Each structure stands twice: as structure tokens, then as C-alpha cells.
Amino acid sequence: MKEKLVRNIGLKLMSLIMAFLLWIVIINSQDPVETVKFEDIPVKILNEDSLRAKDKIPEIVEGDTITVVVEARRSICSGLTSEDIIATADFEKVSVTEAVPIEVSVKGYTDREVEIVRGLNQVMKLRLEDMATKDFRVKITTMGTPAEGYVVGDMVSSPNMITVSGSKTQISKIKEIVLTIDVEGISEELLTTAVPVVYDMNGDVVSASKITLSMDTASVKIPLLQTRNVRLLVYTEGTVEEGYEVADISYQPQNILIAGTAEDLQRFGYVLTAYCDVTGRIGIIEENIDISSLWDSTQFPSLRLVEEEALAVTIQVNEYGEKELEILPEQIELRNRPQGMDISVESISAHKLRIKGRKARLAITTTEKLAPYIDLSVCAEEGEYSLPLQTREINDLSVVSELYVTVRVREQKSEGEE
């Protein structure tokens, strides 16, 4: 028996080797070794609190994601996904050069089953900064529009301050913390919660991974106010220079929308008046008036402008205008005629009387309204007299030019003498 086993031992060994090689060829042809590439694998951070305990804030400069290439049988590779690749950086192992080694493994497989061709011996580069904290007042903004006839009142958040922790560099970049509330279509007071969002100086959202907030949510109270359309009126006060008048007043807006409680709106009314002082001023006067200063905020505490804007006023203060009126002899009244004398109007020094006054008054003034006359009380004897033309006194009007009327006075003759 022994002779049969050792007979042709070389041939038998060669057959065994050939069989093994043939098995290897068959296996490789059916399940060959392949490589698979996985990009943007996130690196999970371990023991970050170990640095924060030292009042240090790590900022990742490089290595928050890596690319991993693995080698394994086709049957294994075909079932691998990015979620199977585990990459970690333990911050307890940070070096003096502020670098942390990245360890890579494949979930569910040993190193012999899946070989990591690329991804080992990589590091995450950090920049360690001192920790800083700062309190920020919470800003509340709204989106949407309340129901018609309502606007949002003074919004209140709880808390109204939030503490932010992070690196000194990151804290210095923060501009504000904002709570955004949707008020679309609401018609009654709203009480809700919101997530605070941190914005930097450029208006970009600061990643939550770079900072820590003292509160994850905040409650917000949104009161509603009723609205009313109010008419604006502008008047002048004071006295302009003598010989000048307020020729025109123009202003915008002429109507405003205010908001407040129903009680304050009821007491306030529908008209708001502004006054501009024109004392000693001439020409074009331009003023911008803060509309919200036109009412007593202590008397109407809830009132506010729906749209903040100033009242733009333009006032024109001009010198009095002038006008000429034609004077005919038959239009002149003869007053205080002396008895026993005949009076005849011989001539007038000019047939145009120049008057000065407010343009509105000038526009409606006629010769008849002036009622021109001469006083004949000095004409007691015969002769020719030059008498000043006089007119009725009219407010805001004055006579600029002086006219004289020449009259002849004669004694009346009896019928026999005639």
C-alpha cells in the first residue's frame, strides 16, 4: 500500500499544483478583484469636547471630506456604498502642528477582505483659536401679509437675547440673529416658536457647525393693529415780510396709512394737521417733517405709520403782484359837491390806476369794486382844481400810482342870466 502511495509522487504533486492553479483561475474568472472609488466621504469628528475643555475652538482648514479607493472581490465591491466607508478624526490626537490623523475602515469587512488602496495616512488640518462668547439681541422679521385692515405691531421674543459661542474670528463676523415668522393672512394675535438663524456681515447664514447658541428655539408674540387712512393738511403760521404773500403750498403725501388699537384710532380721527412757520421768510421754502412727530405719542401710544416716510412741503412766498385798471371820467364819483356850483371833469393825469396786493385778491378786483372818487369839499370857489383820485379801502390791496383829476368849478347861473 505504501508503495502505491509513493509511486510517482512527483507526478501526483504536479497534478495537485495544477488543480490548485486551475481553481485559482476559475475563481478569478468568476469573481475577480476590482477597485472602487468613493468621493466626498465626510470625516466624522470624535472627542471635539476635548479641545473645548481647553477653551480652544477648532476650525477645519482641510480634510473635512476625503476620497477613498478600496480593492476587493467583485462580489464585495458590487455591494459597497459611500455609507459603508467610515472616516474618523479623533481630536484627542491633534498634533503640535494642529493636524489630526484620519482613520478609514469599511463597515462589516476586515482589512483582508477589503483593502484600502487610497485614504489611509491622510490628516485633517485645523486652525485652533481661543473660544469667545457674545450676546446678541434677537431681531424678528416677518414674511407674508396679514389680513386686510391689519398690520403687525411690536413683536416680542423670549428670550430677547441669545449667547453665541465660537472662535474669536467667527464671533467677530456675526452681524445679527434673526427669527422669521410667517404672518400670511392672520387676523388675530399670534404666539409661536421659531428657530434663530445667525447671519454674518455679508448677509450669509453662519453654519451651525461653527458656533453654539444658548437657545435652539425662541417663542415669539406677534400682536396685530388695525389700520386707517388719514388725510394730511398743511397750513402756515407766523407773518411773512410786509409786501409778501404765501402764493402756493404743495406737499406729499396727502394721505397716509396709520395703525393702532381700535381705541386710539377712534380718538385720533381722520385728519392730521401740520404747520410751517413762514415768519420773515421769502422765496421757496422747503421742509421735511417727521410725520410721526405730528401727534402726541403719550396720548396715542399705539399709533404708528404703516410706511415710514417724511412729509415733504414746498411753500412759495412771493412779493405782492400788481395790476392796472382803466379809469374813465364817468366812473369817478364826485363827493361833497359845493352848493351852487357846477362841476365838470376836465382831465385825468392817467387813465390807468396801478394797484398792488395778493394775487388772489387782484384777480377779482375791478374798477367798480375800487369805487374811485374825488373829494370836492375844497372847491368852494370858482376855478380849476387838481384833486387826488381816491378809492375804497380793500384788505390786502394798495394803490401804487397816484392819479389826479382836473375839475372846473363855476357858479350856477339863474334862468334869466342864461
Can you describe this structure?
By secondary structure, the chain is mainly beta. It has 8 helices and 30 strands. The protein has helices at residues 2-6, 9-30, 49-52, 74-77, 168-173, 262-268, 359-364, 367-370, and strands at residues 33-46, 56-62, 65-73, 85-90, 99-106, 115-118, 122-143, 150-152, 156-158, 161-167, 174-182, 190-194, 197-200, 211-213, 218-222, 224-237, 244-252, 255-260, 271-277, 283-290, 304-305, 310-319, 321-326, 333-335, 341-348, 352-357, 373-375, 383-388, 397-399, 404-411. The radius of gyration is 51 Å and the shape is rod-shaped. The mean pLDDT is 87.
Key descriptive features of the protein:
418 residues, mainly beta, eleven-stranded mixed beta sheet
